[in-house]
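Good morning C.,

I know you're traveling, so I'll keep this short. The sequence:
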Amino acid sequence: MKIKEYLKSISKVEKTRFSKRQAVALVFLVLFLGIAVFFASILLFPKIVFETSFTMNIRENKKEWEMAFDVEKSKSYNLNVRLDAEGMLTDIQVYDSKGIKIYQNICEWCTFSTYLDLEKGNYRLALTFLKDPGEMERYLKEKDYDFSQDQIDMLKEIFGKSKDIEAIPISFSAKIKG
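The tokens, ready to paste straight into the viewer:
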């Protein structure tokens, strides 16, 4: 009996309506949340302008590899690189459309993240793999690297051990996002 009375009392309760003020506030809240989600997605998921990942065996004493990419908006971009080319020196460069070098790093293996200030335009990422110590010395002098002769001799000694290896496996990945 009590249940029946309780159910009757619930049905008699006057239902409240949304006032215009509450409806407008709800619309603004939904709009604000939509804008917040939009900007959060831009910050949390930046646009990728270049991405590559590959592995290969290098047999040549010097091998050059180039990849092009376009930048649609002038701003600062994050460059993430991972290279494993043990036994080989690798020169990583980024050039603009005029051929001006805007980034360079030379290493055997590395994992790093850095920022590049890029203008709208065409760019290319160039990799030069150097296996032969004699080729390394010529290349470093040709590119005007600031290595002393002692440093070059040390590199030749370190990498001289791998010059007779027929093929050196390398693994490279790069991503530019902003």
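Safe travels,
E.
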